Amino acid sequence: MSKTNNRIPFLDTIRGFAALWVVLFHCAEGQHLPTLIRDLPGWLGTAVFFAGHLGVPIFFVLSGFVLARISAGKIDSGRSAARFLAQRLIRLSPPYYLAVFVGVGQLLVKSHAEGGAAPNVPQVLAHLTYSQDILGFDPLNTIFWTLAIEVQFYVAFALLLWAAHALVRATKAADSNAWFVVAAAFTALLWPLHVVETPFWRGGFIGLWYSFLCGSLVALSNNRSRPREIAALTYIAALAVIGVCLADTFALATAVAALFVFAAERSAALARAVSLGPLTSLGLVSYSLYLFHNPVTGIVSRIVRRAMPAGLASDIVLLGSVLTACIAFAALMYVVIEKPAMRWSHRFAR
Q1: Residue 116 belongs to what domain range?
Q2: Which of 55, 142, 212, 246 is spaced 20 to 30 Å from 240 by Cα?
Q3: Count of CB atoms within 10 A of residue 58's CB?
Q4: Distance between CA atoms of 64 and 261, rounded to whole angstroms?
Q5: 144-171 and 209-220 helices, crossing angle to 10°
Q6: What single DSSP character describes residue 295?
Q7: Rg value, the chain, Cα
Q8: Is 3 part of a structural domain of the chain?
Q9: Are the CB atoms for 264 and 282 separated by under 8 Å?
Q10: Domain annotation covers residue 1
Q11: Can you point out the beta strands (E) in 76-192?
Q12: Pairwise CA distance, residues 163 & 45, whole Å
């Protein structure tokens, strides 16, 4: 498996695919391409556009995978857990905060032009602390709920590893860290199985934690430990069965994404085959693409609709314009905001 500047190319390819799929989903959900989607075969419109929300579980799997990798052996106390969380927030927050203020600006303009409520200070502060869903505020951008869940994942995962390390010290048992995570992952299956329904609090992460932990299990199995590999594959199979039997597409997408990562980790040929130039490059800017595509799509849509009459041709022009503008803006944000945030995060880790 090749790595470039501490990045894994095939993971960037998957990120690029997931981000692009979410963009296409919101193009459809926002009814920006009515003629194009109407003229497509139903199965194709669903696969390309309406199923794009399944990019979210793909992101969760990748997040769990990466965090398990970078945190291995690094969380052994409350202080190291706090450092880990701070490092992740330094990486996550600067682009997110800019996206929050872009959302505020967009809603202020909309409220002035069309009427309706403008964003208020408590709402903005709740977003800045990733607590908008917990506190019951309307989102400034429809994708922000996933960032709030992601931060809860980080906190829970850091606490989990801290507890696992304490167990290792108490029991002197080898490999207890990994098996503590395995136990947590299988416990998390109670929610997609609907044995337990409660999220414990509004906007809680627990109902979706299985997706994150599935990626973590794949990462922990990478040392070719046969028991860990069996645990990861059993978990993936369980989610696939849940997805099919309970018509849970989120669980099924989690299983498919995790199985793909599992296979690519073990097959250099597969990893090379999917490390496609455009999608791999798109993966580099996938976070900014995810954060900013909604406001950019709205602006581009208004411009194109004023310039061209509605119809198939204008839908095709609009789609090309949206993708071009979203990717270009994401690339700019990656250079201006994300790369400095990554440098700050790395410095903090030293």
Answers
A1: 9-349
A2: 142
A3: 25
A4: 12
A5: 50
A6: H
A7: 21
A8: no
A9: no
A10: no
A11: none
A12: 46
Q: Which residues contact 314 (CB under 8 A, 6 or more apart)?
A: 35, 304, 305, 308
What pLDDT does residue 4 have? 46
Compute the distance between CA of residue 280 and CA of residue 298 in angstroms, rounded to an integer: 26
3-state secondary structure of 128: helix
Locate 182 and state its tokens. Answer: 């395995």
Q: What angle do CA 271, 25, 280 make, to 5 degrees?
A: 25
289 or 69, which is more confident:
289
User: How many distinct structural domains can be found in the chain?
Assistant: 1
d(CA 22, CA 59): 10
Q: Which of 211-215, 324-328, 333-337, 342-346 shows the lowest mean pLDDT across its residues?
A: 342-346
DSSP 214-263: HHHHHHHGGG--HHHHHHHHHHHHHHHHHHHHTT-HHHHHHHHHHHHHHH
Residue 4 in any domain: the answer is no
Which DSSP state fits 49? I
> Is residue 218 scored above 80 in pLDDT?
yes
Residue among 232, 146, 153 nearest 186 (CA): 232
Phi (first) and psi of residue 4, to 5 degrees? -130, 115
Take residue 147 and report the two structure tokens written for it: 């960032």
- Kindly state the percentage of the chain with pLDDT values over 70: 95
Distance CA 99, CA 218 (A): 31
Q: Rounded to an integer, what distance in angstroms lies between the CA atom of residue 146 and that of residue 218?
A: 21
Identify which of 18, 44, 41, 81 has the alpha carbon closest to the alpha carbon of residue 261: 18
- pTM for the complete prediction? 0.94
How far is the CA of 347 from the CAs of 6, 86, 242, 333, 344, in angstroms? 15, 12, 42, 20, 5
Q: Average of pLDDT values for 280-301?
A: 95
**Ramachandran assignment for 54, one of left (phi > 0), alpha (psi -120 to 50 degrees), beta (any other):** alpha
pLDDT over 90 (residue 243)? yes
Q: Are 323 and 293 a contacting pair, CB within 8 Å?
A: no
2 in any annotated domain: no
Residues in the chain: 350
